[in-house]
Amino acid sequence: MLETFLDYRFLFDIAVILLSTKLCGMLTRRFYMPQVVGALLAGLLLGPAILQPLFGFSVLEETDFIDSISEIGVIVLMFTAGLDTNIKDLKKVGVSSTIVAAIGVVVPLLMGWGIAAIFGAGENTLQHVFIGVILTATSVSITVETLKELGKLNTKVANTILGAAVIDDILGIIVLTVISSMADSSVSIWVTLLKILLFFVFVGVCAFLGYHLFSRWFSRSSKDLRRHVIVSFVFCLLMSLAAEVFFGVADITGAFFAGLILSSTTAQPYLNARFGTLSYMFLSPVFFASIGLKVSVEGMGATVWIFAGALVLVAILSKIVGCYIGARVCKFNHREGMQIGTGMVSRGEVALIVANKGYALGLMSDIYFAPVILVVIVTTIVSPILLKIAYREKKPKKDQPQLQS
């Protein structure tokens, strides 16, 4: 019986992951945090990070099967992120969101690079830069909920935050593309840059041909929409494969642009709903739990823990400073600049996706997963608090009675 159980252990692992991530997700939602944090906590609680040091065993361990499922999960996540991106809305957000996003990427990149170099978080400059790349990501899901609660969602500041967040992710993907392509030190930098250029040419050709072909096919076969999902998923997988194999670009970049190409087609709502369900029910929980399973506190000395605290501080300050500067350049006042800066602080799934990809490419050691996860959790908690402070109305000063001489 034991041998049979071990042969089918993967079924037990998946069942435990799905149940634990759901329960932890429900718990984190009670504290107004996204379920991503709950999935991370599930992986941390049941994996080697907590149970192993305390009791000498862990319920779950990282396996090849879980790694394969999580790889498909992250591809679908980025594909749906592309599907969710409205190109027309990107055009509407204008120059202000672009400037805020651009400076909001550059400052965290440089500050993350600097703090990694100071602490020696990596063996070479490229690994130091990659820590900065992780900090460029932004997740505004918690910001949107906070703005709704404050009644400030349909404002110029809120629209700037939302637009900048979308552009921020695209810029982050481009930076990841460059860094991941440079991971192979045996390849010339000029060859790498040429491959990146050819990749974007390839994306442009696929966008032109793919949009027209898919739009025509979707309109002709609108009765049976199920086949659209299969063909679209095949397109996503082939774009991911082409990006990784032929251009040396991260597969998730190919998946993102595949979703972006299909985002303007008539089938977008249907595709988004179907892939969203698949991701929510199965793939996303496995992926985020697998991040927690990669964390091991063994070998983490005092320096790594100090680095984790410093990285959290840099993650918060760099986004506020970068986006504040961008907002001020765009003629927002001081208060609005602080609102935009604090609204961009939260990191989330994109930071975890980038970290996971860097780990797979050898750009980050597993010992630095704990600091990255700490950044995601702390910024998720801190972001709504800072945002509410930034929106706090100043109480008018009471007139002081004049002293009579």
Structural write-up:
Keywords: Antiport, Ion transport, Membrane, Sodium, Sodium transport, Transmembrane, Transmembrane helix, Transport. The chain crosses the membrane at residues 36-57, 69-87, 99-122, 128-147, 159-183, 189-209, 230-258, 278-297, 304-327, 367-387. Its main location: membrane. Helix content is 77%, strand content 0%. With 405 residues, the chain is an all-alpha fold. The model has no long low-confidence stretch (mean pLDDT 84). The longest helix is centred in the N-terminal third of the chain and has 33 residues, at 87-119. The chain has helices at 2-7, 9-30, 35-46, 51-55, 64-84, 87-119, 125-135, 141-150, 156-181, 189-220, 226-246, 251-262, 268-294, 302-329, 334-343, 349-360, 369-390. The chain contains 17 helices and no strands. It has one domain (10-390): Na+/H+ antiporter like fold (Up-down Bundle). Helix 9 (156-181) crosses helix 15 (334-343) and helix 11 (226-246) packs antiparallel against helix 12.
The major β-sheet equals: none
Task: Output the CATH topology.
Answer: Na+/H+ antiporter like fold
Low-pLDDT windows of residues: none
Shape: globular
Order of helices and strands: HHHHHHHHHHHHHHHHH
Q: How many DSSP E strands?
A: 0
Corresponding CATH architecture: Up-down Bundle
Q: What would you report as the Rg, rounded to the nearest angstrom?
A: 22 Å
